[in-house]
Write a structure and sequence with these properties.
Blueprint (H helix, E strand, L loop, with lengths): L5 H13 L3 H7 L4 H18 L13 H4 L17
Helix pairs in contact: 1-3, 2-3
Length: about 80
């Protein structure tokens, strides 16, 4: 998979935060968890919009399914409605 340099990702995140409305940034520090979660989701959506210019693809398509690293390898089981 192509890797995007950390400094490029940092720049895009900084711009997404810098161009966010003040109310959205205030939501990140809100005491209400729902408002905080909504603000985080909106920041993430803005970042996704900014990152659409990148093409993420697997260089070696034969290795993709087997060798793809997961951020949370212990959480690869089936999705259930219960938490442990």
């Amino acid at each position: 998979m192509s890797r995007v340099a950390d400094d490029i990702l940092t720049t895009h995140l900084e711009v997404a935060l810098a161009t966010s409305p003040a109310a959205l940034l205030d939501g990140l520090a809100d005491n209400d968890g729902r408002r905080r979660h909504a603000a985080i989701g909106e920041i993430a959506r803005q970042l996704v919009d900014r990152l659409r210019c990148f093409e993420f693809r697997c260089v070696d398509s034969e290795r993709w399914p087997q060798d793809h690293l997961s951020l949370f390898p212990e959480d690869l089981g089936p999705i259930s409605g219960r938490r442990p």
